[in-house]
Write a structure and sequence with these properties.
about 450 residues; 18 helices; about 75% helix; mainly alpha; disordered N terminus; globular
Length: about 450
Amino acid sequence: MTDGESIQPASGRRNEDWWAIGIGLGLVIAALVLARLGLSLRWLAVLPPRWTQFAQITADLTTNWPRYLAQLAFWAVVFGATLRALGYRVVDFLAAFVPLYLVAYAIFVIGQWDKAVVYNLEPPLIALLLGLIIANTTRIPDRFAAGLRGELYVKTGIVLLGATVPLTLIVLAGPVAVGQAAIVSIATFLVIYAVAVKLGLDRRFAATLGVGGAVCGVSAAIAIAGAVGARRENASVTISAVVLWAIVMIFALPLVSRELLLPTGVAGAWIGTSEFADAAGIAAAQAYGGFAGKVAGITGTAEQALQAFTLMKVLGRDVWIGIWAVVLAIVATTRWRDEPGTGAPDVHEIWRRFPKFVIGFLAASAIVSIATAGLSLAAYNKVAVPGFVGPIKDLRTWAFIFCFFSIGLTTRFDQFARTGAKPLAAFSVGVAVNVVLGFVLSVYVFGGYWQHLGQ
């Protein structure tokens, strides 16, 4: 699911999902309770202000340093406790997380500059690029891995993202998102699988590559390799191909979308069908959403880009992990007997492989939707957004920046050397199909729907 991270045991990833759900829903419920009491999480959810002169930043820091310090302490406690429960040393986590937070603050400062959009200095792209430069020019101590948990950060952010995506929008967009995701997922898998087999790769490796490109990168590669009995190195090669193309798409998709002046909802849907990992896609969608209201000709809102991406990728494509795992386990067991395989397929595989944080996303959406059900749009924007939803959105933004910077810091270009020409070629053909098909569906087939998402 997340780019550039080491593979965790399946049980560890599942536990991480539930911890992310606990953190995200805990914040949503706390925000709701405080709002009912006439209070808010706003004090904790501090961000650097928009600025034209750097003196504005120093003035903000002079005034709000206790808030930033409290926020650092809050994140350190909740993430530290989580990673301690998952078996990491808290001292190692803090050694990495404190500088991670400080750099995230600096990234936000750059992104809040009034000229940032002119130079494409969007925080997600800055975080990723800076992390890549550091990771590939210096040696990061192994113990810092405890604090560079991009997968935990992005899952927490996705749960918080649910608070800003109304349940009614999910219900209305569901059929479109699921249908478009199904078309892209099936087509991409079939192309990669067919090309890989044609190039002489065994069918289990081809299946792992295919689902890695069709669904959700790292998690898909691990899940399918286990389901069909592929070699461990097959999953590693697939992950390398996923990471390589996910990084390329983080920069390419927003750039092309900007040149085409796509509406934010349309671009978000295209990114959702064309990216290969949740974290990478969120970075691209958030970067493009930052152009809304700043680049002439780009219509829509920043939230539409994130909402469309989430509906397409998280709710549309990610749920296919379990489906592919079961289907391919059955095929491998019944049809691929001439190759080393796996045991009998398990009907419980769908639940085991299902990305649990999706449940948290839907729960957060339901909580906020129910809590604000009686409000008109004007009242929602005036009452609910400033004190209730707004702080959740800002805390979500912090979690995403932690994720993007962690991705960069854990991605080394030399890891791609082991990918090999044939697997990369097969995967790349699938990338071409994925991007073109996603564009056609997002812009021409369902373009009117995505352009007016939520309106």
